[in-house]
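Quick one, tokens below. Sequence please?
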């Protein structure tokens, strides 16, 4: 397999929507597409959005119905990014055309490695991924679970692919759904906090634009500070919280609202729904 630190082998993105497109752009920006990349989308309009990327062949299925088959047959790594309900039919379509040793990576939430094995065979190398939306700006977190047939070299190639758009955490498949409740759903939790922080500022008399600026930039700045520091977040919080000061009083209110329990309950609710979706309910 190609050295994953300098380039990647031929890759096919089957269903290069928002997430697949973000990862694709990350590969191009990192200069890791020497082997060539083919991306498929259903419409000509969607395919046109990726057509100008260097080293990328963008295929519209409405113009070439065999686009998925042709892309998969020419690739060493195939990323499956279609909607979960469409995955089984797509796997059946490409299975007879995969080359020996091809790595197939799922981007589809809730679709298990067992499903991939049923449609592709146990000998096909499969991995399940769970990227999140900050991948769109190169600051994502991707959970990665390897199937039984995946070798360390296979995992290294896929890891290098996702590291172009952020960090990668390798977990057993049994933890993928739990991971999704933190990093996958997590951006929504942050956005909700910014919404409420903005609303609090408005209630204190700030105009909406000012309130939004105060809230958003405080979160962005705090996140950047945390990212640039080796200090634990709890210690960073303590450094802002002067004894008997205003921040200490505010933090006491937040802690009194049992945030730890609230976040745990939220994550558990998301996990329960993920299991319902995986069961088809």
């Amino acid at each position: 397999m190609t050295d994953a630190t300098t380039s990647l082998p031929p890759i096919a993105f089957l269903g290069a929507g928002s997430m697949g497109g973000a990862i694709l752009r990350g590969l191009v920006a990192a200069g890791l597409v020497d082997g060539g990349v083919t991306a498929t989308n259903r419409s000509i309009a969607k395919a046109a959005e990726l057509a100008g990327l260097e080293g990328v062949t963008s295929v519209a299925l409405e113009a070439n119905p065999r686009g998925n088959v042709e892309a998969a047959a020419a690739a060493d790594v195939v990323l499956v990014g279609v909607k979960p309900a469409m995955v089984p039919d797509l796997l059946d379509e490409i299975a007879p055309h995969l080359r020996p040793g091809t790595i197939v990576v799922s981007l589809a939430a809730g679709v298990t490695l067992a499903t991939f094995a049923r449609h592709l065979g146990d000998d096909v190398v499969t991995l399940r991924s769970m990227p999140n939306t900050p991948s769109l700006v190169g600051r994502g977190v991707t959970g990665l679970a390897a199937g039984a047939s995946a070798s360390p070299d296979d995992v290294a190639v896929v890891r290098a692919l996702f590291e172009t758009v952020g960090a990668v955490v390798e977990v057993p498949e049994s933890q993928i759904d739990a991971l999704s409740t933190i990093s996958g759903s997590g951006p929504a939790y942050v956005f909700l906090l910014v919404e409420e922080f903005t609303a609090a500022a408005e209630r204190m008399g700030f105009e909406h634009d000012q309130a939004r600026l105060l809230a958003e930039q405080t979160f962005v700045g705090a996140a950047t500070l945390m990212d640039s520091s080796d200090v634990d977040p709890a210690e960073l919080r303590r450094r802002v919280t002067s004894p008997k000061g205003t921040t200490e009083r505010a933090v006491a209110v937040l802690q009194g609202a049992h945030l730890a329990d609230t976040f745990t309950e939220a994550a558990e609710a998301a996990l329960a729904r993920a299991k319902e979706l995986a069961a088809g309910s």
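The chain has a mean pLDDT of 93. The longest helix spans residues 208-228.
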